[in-house]
Write a structure and sequence with these properties.
Layout lengths: L1 H7 L7 H4 L2 E5 L3 H9 L4 E5 L17 H10 L3 E6 L8 H13 L4 E4 L2 H10 L5 E3 L8 H10 L3 E3 L6 H13 L6 E7 L11 H6 L17 E4 L2 E2 L13 E3 L4 H6 L4 E4 L6 H20 L12 H5 L12 H10 L4 E2 L22 E10 L2 E4 L10 E5 L9 E10 L2 E6 L14 E6 L1 H9 L10 E9 L4 E8 L4 E9 L1 E2 L7 H8 L7 E10 L3 E2 L2 H20 L12 H4 L16 H9 L4 E6 L2 H9 L4 E4 L7 H9 L5 H9 L18 E4 L10 H8 L5 E4 L2 H6 L5 E3 L8 H10 L4 E3 L6 H9 L6 E7 L2 E5 L3 H6 L17 E4 L5 E6 L5 E4 L3 E3 L4 H6 L4 E5 L5 H15 L5 H11 L4 E2 L6
Parallel strand pairs: 1-2, 1-11, 2-3, 3-4, 4-5, 5-6, 6-7, 7-11, 10-12, 19-23, 25-26, 25-37, 26-27, 27-28, 28-29, 29-30, 30-31, 31-37, 36-38
Antiparallel strand pairs: 7-10, 8-9, 8-33, 13-14, 13-18, 14-17, 15-16, 15-18, 16-17, 19-20, 20-21, 22-24, 31-36, 32-35, 33-34, 34-35
C-alpha cells in the first residue's frame, strides 16, 4: 500500500524547481554559503584552494566538503565546486586526486574550463555531473554540442549571448533532439573580454585570468589615441569598464527562453552582498511563478523585438526598493548587459570603474561645512557617502552623514566635525551613497543564528479510515518522499472530525525547521479523529525523516581502477589516426621533416608580401576585412620562384649544416586563413566567406570552426586553450588537426612539460607576438568615435582611423576590429621567447610561429630574417632579443614565457 500511495499521487505534487530556473549564488566562505541558503538560493558554487578562477577568495578546503555538503543538502540546496581554470601537465595528478575527493564527498557537480579535465572526470566517473564553465567560451549550439560530446551535463553560456541568441541556441538544440540545460549569468560584474579569452593580466603582469588571478586591468583608465592624437572624451576615461549586469527586468524572457539556471557573480564579495542579491532574485522569481501562465507567452524573442524595446511587453519592472538594494550591494552602474542585444553607448559609461552605490544628486551649495543637495534617493544619518568630482583615479572625499534636514525639495547634509576635508568638496560634485548600515544590519540578521530562516515548501497527503492508521506521504521540491504512519488507529468522530483546516494547522507548524507547508491533500474517508499529540508526533517524524534523507550525499560512481595514466598519450606508440581524404597528408608529411618550421601570421597584404619575399613556407592571414583573403590567396598561389633565383638567395645566407631551415625561400608557400575568434548563431556566413577563397587550410579558433572546417586542413589556435596533453590529444586526434597551438598561459617550463608529455609534432608555439589581451564584444570604435549603438548605425569608424589605448604608464595598446565587429586590444610591446627556442628545439618542437600586428613590411622582413637565423643556429636568442629591442621603438619584452 505504501508504494501505491507514493506512486499513485506523485503527479499531484507541485514543485517550484520544475517551473522556474534554479537560482545559483556565489560562496567565497562559510558565511557567504549561509547567507545564500538563508535567502533562497537553490544552489551555491564555491572554490577549493586550487584550480579555481577566484584564487583571491577565501575559498574552502577538501576537509570542509563533508560538513559543507551535509549542511547544504539538509537545507535542500546543491553545491557545485569550481574547477574552472586551465590545468598544466605537471598538475594533472593532483587534479585527479582533487576530483576523487570531490566526487566521493557527494558534491553535486563540478564547473570546468579545461577540456582535458572534462575527459578525466568522465574517465573516473560515468555519472558525476560536469558543468561547462563560461570560461569555455561557448556562444552557439555547436559549442553546446561540443560540451555534450565531452560528457558535460550543463553549459554556462558566454555572458555576451543576447536573448534572441539564447533562443536560437535552444531552438537548434531542440531541432536535433538535444536536451542539455543552459545556465546564464544574471547578475554581477561583467568582464569586458570574453571569459577564457582574456590574456591581459597574463601579458602585463604574469597573472593569468585563466588561472584565477585576474588583475582587473579593464577597470583602469585609458586614453583614446586616434591617428596619433589624443582625443578629449571629457570625464570618460574608463573605456573598458562595463556597468554591472542586472538581469532582473528580463527574468520573464529568461524563463521563456528555457534557461535552466540563473547565476549570480560574486565569489569575492561579502556575505551581505550574497544575502542582498540572492533575496532580490529569489523574491522576483517567486512572484513570477505566481503570475498567470499566459503572462509570458511561449514564443521566440527576435533581435527586432529586442531593439523595439520588446521586454516592456512582458517584463516585471523592478521596484524602487529592489533597484536600491542591488545598487547598494555593489554597483558600477547596473545594466542588462548583452541580454537586450548590443548597445555600445550604454554598456560602458566610462566615468568610473569602481563601486559607487546609489546616486543621491549633485552638490548645489556648500556653506558652513554643510552641503545642499536635491536628493534623488533616501538618505539618513549614519549612511556613508562619497563626493565624485570626476576624477575617480584620485583619492575622493567622503564619510558618514551626521544629519539630514529636508527643506522643500532640498536637503541640508551635515557631517561630523573634521570628518571631511572641505577643500576637496566642490559645487557640482556628484554625491553617491556607498553604505547603508541599517540595510547591512537587516541583511546580517537574515542569516544569523542556527535556526533556519528560509523555508522550502513540502506537500503532504493524508490517507486513512476508521480502524486504520493515519498515513502521510510527504514530498519536497527536490523529489524526496517520506511516508509516516500514526501509531494509534483512527477512530470514528462523533464531534470535531479531522478536517483539512485542522490538518493544515497541526502539520503546518513547521517553525524552526527548513520546511513550510505547501499543498495539503486530505484523502481521509469518513469522519475520523486522532489525538493532537499524535499529529504533532507525525509532524516531527516527517521533518526528521526528510532531513535525514536529504543529508545523505549522492553516491556517484567512482571507478577505482581508472587512472590518469590511461588517458595520457603513449609516446613512441601513438595510434595513427584515420584522416578523411582532405589533403592533410601534405601537412602531416611536413611535420615528419626533422627541420624546424617558421610560420608567420600577418594582418595585412603588405605584411604578407614581405613574408613571402622572406621565403616563409607557411603563412597565416588574419585580416579585419575577410574579403581581402581572395587577393591574399592569389598572391600566395602565384608566388613561384624559379630554381635560379632560389639558389641565389640561399647563397646569400650562411645556414648551419646541422640545422637547415626547411621552409626558407620555399617555391610553394602555403596559406592558412583565420576566421574571427568568436562565432555566434547566424554568423556561419562569415565562415562560408572565408572558405570560399580556397586557401590551403584554416586556423581554427572555436568549436563552430572545428565542425565547419572538418573536411579541410586545420591548425588549432591558442584560443582553444591547449594547456595539457589530455586537451591536445582530444583536439588533435578527434578532429584531425595538423597541429595545435600551445596556450599562451604556459611558461617555458610548462611548455617543455607539454611537449615532452606527448608527441612534439602535435604542437606549435608562438615565440614572437603582440599579445592579444582583451577580445571583446564591446566595440570601442562605436562607443567613443560615433553616436551609434552597433554596426548598423556607427558609420564604421574602425575602417577610417588607427586607434590605440594609452594606459597609465604611457603604453599605447593597438586596437583592431574583426568582421564580427569584435575588438581586440593588442599589447603595445611585442614579446619574444627567443632565448628559450633552443630548449624547445631540444624538446623536439619543430613548429614555431611569429605574429605581426601593425609592423611595416621592412620590419616584418627584418624580424623574419632574425628568427630564421635563430632557428638555423646563426645567432643566439639573447642576441636576437637585444637587437630587436634596439630595432623596435617600443621595445620587446621577454613576456609570459618566463613567468
Amino acid at each position: 500500500m505504501q508504494a501505491e500511495l507514493i506512486q499513485t499521487n506523485h503527479s499531484q505534487s507541485t514543485s517550484r524547481s520544475n517551473a522556474l530556473p534554479q537560482l545559483l549564488a556565489p560562496a567565497g566562505n562559510w558565511e557567504c554559503a549561509t547567507a545564500a541558503v538563508e535567502n533562497g538560493a537553490d544552489a551555491i558554487y564555491f572554490g577549493l584552494d586550487k584550480f579555481n578562477a577566484r584564487m583571491r577568495a577565501e575559498n574552502f578546503t577538501e576537509a570542509d566538503l563533508p560538513e559543507l555538503m551535509e549542511f547544504l543538502h539538509r537545507r535542500g540546496v546543491k553545491g557545485y565546486v569550481t574547477l574552472n581554470t586551465l590545468v598544466f601537465p605537471q598538475e594533472l595528478r593532483e587534479a585527479e586526486r582533487y576530483l576523487r575527493s570531490i566526487i566521493a564527498a557527494g558534491v553535486d557537480a563540478v564547473i570546468v574550463q579545461d577540456i582535458g579535465i572534462c575527459r578525466l572526470i568522465r574517465h573516473l566517473s560515468p555519472d558525476f555531473p560536469i558543468h561547462a564553465s563560461t570560461q569555455m567560451t561557448i556562444t552557439s549550439d555547436v559549442g553546446v554540442e561540443f560540451a555534450e560530446t565531452l560528457g558535460c551535463n550543463l553549459v554556462v553560456l558566454a555572458r555576451e549571448c543576447s536573448l534572441p541568441e539564447i533562443n536560437k541556441i535552444q531552438n537548434r538544440m531542440q531541432y536535433r533532439g538535444a536536451t542539455l540545460p543552459l545556465e546564464v549569468f544574471v547578475h554581477g560584474a561583467l568582464c569586458v573580454a570574453y571569459s577564457g579569452q582574456c590574456l591581459t593580466s597574463e601579458a602585463l603582469g604574469g597573472r593569468s585570468a585563466n588561472r584565477g588571478e585576474c588583475a582587473q586591468a579593464c577597470r583602469m583608465p585609458y586614453e583614446l589615441v586616434v591617428d596619433g592624437e589624443s582625443v578629449d572624451l571629457g570625464d570618460k576615461k574608463y573605456l573598458l569598464s562595463p556597468q554591472d549586469l542586472a538581469g532582473l527586468s528580463v527574468l520573464p524572457e529568461l524563463v521563456q527562453a528555457g534557461v535552466s539556471c540563473l547565476k549570480i557573480e560574486g565569489r569575492l564579495k561579502s556575505p551581505e552582498y550574497v544575502a542582498n542579491v540572492t533575496r532580490v532574485y529569489r523574491e522576483a522569481l517567486d512572484r513570477l511563478m505566481m503570475l498567470p501562465e499566459d503572462t509570458v507567452k511561449d514564443e521566440e524573442i527576435t533581435e527586432t523585438e529586442v531593439k523595439a524595446d520588446f521586454p516592456k511587453k512582458s517584463s516585471i519592472s523592478p521596484s524602487p526598493e529592489e533597484l536600491y538594494n542591488l545598487e547598494m550591494a555593489f554597483s558600477r552602474g547596473i545594466y542588462t548587459g548583452w541580454f537586450r542585444g548590443i548597445n555600445n553607448q550604454e554598456l560602458v559609461h566610462a566615468r568610473f570603474g569602481k563601486k559607487r552605490g546609489v546616486y543621491l544628486g549633485k552638490v548645489k551649495q556648500i556653506r558652513h561645512e554643510e552641503v545642499i543637495v536635491t536628493l534623488e534617493a533616501p538618505l539618513k544619518p549614519g549612511d556613508g557617502v562619497v563626493f565624485d568630482c570626476g576624477h575617480p583615479e584620485t583619492k575622493e572625499e567622503g564619510g558618514r552623514v551626521y544629519g539630514v534636514q529636508q527643506r522643500g525639495k532640498e536637503a541640508i547634509i551635515t557631517f561630523g566635525k573634521d570628518n571631511l576635508n572641505w577643500r576637496r568638496v566642490h559645487v557640482g560634485d556628484k554625491l553617491w551613497k556607498t553604505s547603508d548600515p541599517e540595510l547591512d544590519k537587516q541583511l546580517r540578521q537574515s542569516y544569523a543564528g542556527d535556526t533556519p530562516q528560509f523555508q522550502r515548501p513540502i506537500d503532504i497527503e493524508v490517507h486513512g479510515e476508521v480502524d486504520n492508521k493515519l498515513v502521510t506521504v510527504t514530498r519536497d521540491e527536490l523529489g524526496y518522499v517520506v511516508l509516516v504512519e500514526s501509531e494509534i488507529l483512527l477512530q470514528e468522530a462523533h464531534t470535531k472530525p479531522l478536517t483539512t483546516e485542522k490538518l493544515q494547522e497541526q502539520l503546518g507548524r513547521l517553525g524552526n525547521t527548513p520546511f513550510k507547508l505547501g499543498n495539503l491533500n486530505n484523502y481521509l474517508q469518513g469522519n475520523v479523529i486522532l489525538p493532537v499529540s499524535e499529529l504533532n508526533k507525525i509532524r516531527r517524524e516527517i521533518v526528521s525523516k526528510l532531513a535525514e534523507q536529504r543529508a545523505k550525499s549522492r553516491r556517484w560512481q567512482l571507478n577505482q581502477n581508472a587512472s590518469l595514466k590511461d588517458l595520457l598519450p603513449k609516446l613512441g606508440n601513438v595510434p595513427i589516426q584515420e584522416h578523411k581524404d582532405k589533403g592533410k597528408d601534405k601537412g602531416k608529411d611536413k611535420d615528419k621533416n626533422s627541420h624546424p618550421n617558421l610560420i608567420v601570421l600577418v594582418r595585412n597584404l603588405q605584411q604578407l608580401a614581405a613574408a613571402l619575399e622572406a621565403g616563409i613556407e607557411t603563412v597565416y592571414c588574419e585580416f579585419e576585412d575577410t574579403r581581402k583573403y581572395r587577393e591574399a590567396v592569389e598572391m600566395v598561389k602565384g608566388k613561384k620562384r624559379d630554381r635560379e633565383t632560389l639558389t641565389q638567395e640561399e647563397d646569400s645566407i650562411s645556414f648551419s649544416p646541422s640545422l637547415p631551415l626547411s621552409g626558407a625561400y620555399s617555391p610553394n608557400p602555403e596559406i592558412f586563413l583565420a576566421p574571427p575568434r568568436i562565432t555566434k548563431p547566424g554568423e556561419n556566413w562569415i565562415l562560408q566567406q572565408v572558405r570560399s577563397h580556397n586557401a590551403d587550410g584554416y586556423l581554427i579558433r572555436n568549436y563552430d570552426q572545428l565542425q565547419f572546417f572538418a573536411n579541410d586542413r586545420c591548425v588549432g589556435d591558442f584560443s582553444l586553450n591547449v594547456a595539457n596533453p589530455l586537451t591536445a590529444d582530444y583536439l588533435y586526434n578527434k578532429f584531425g588537426l595538423e597541429r595545435v597551438t600551445a596556450s599562451y598561459d604556459l611558461n617555458i617550463n610548462q611548455l617543455e612539460d607539454l611537449i615532452t608529455s606527448s608527441p612534439p609534432e602535435w604542437y606549435e608555439v608562438t615565440i614572437h607576438q603582440h599579445m592579444p589581451m582583451f577580445h571583446m564584444e564591446h566595440c570601442v570604435f562605436c562607443a567613443f568615435l560615433s553616436t551609434g549603438t552597433d554596426f548598423t548605425n556607427c558609420g564604421r569608424p574602425c575602417e577610417k582611423y588607427e586607434v590605440k589605448l594609452r594606459d597609465r604608464v604611457g603604453s599605447e595598446h593597438i586596437l583592431q576590429a574583426d568582421l564580427g565587429c569584435r575588438n581586440t586590444v593588442f599589447n603595445a610591446t611585442a614579446q619574444t621567447g627567443a632565448e628559450y627556442v633552443q630548449k624547445l628545439l631540444n624538446s623536439g618542437l619543430k613548429n614555431f610561429r611569429i605574429e605581426f600586428v601593425n609592423e611595416t613590411p621592412d620590419d616584418v622582413k627584418q624580424t623574419i630574417q632574425m628568427y630564421q637565423q635563430l632557428l638555423c643556429g646563426k645567432i643566439k636568442g639573447s642576441q636576437l632579443w637585444r637587437e630587436l629591442k634596439l630595432q623596435n621603438q617600443l621595445g620587446v619584452t621577454r613576456g609570459t614565457v618566463v613567468h
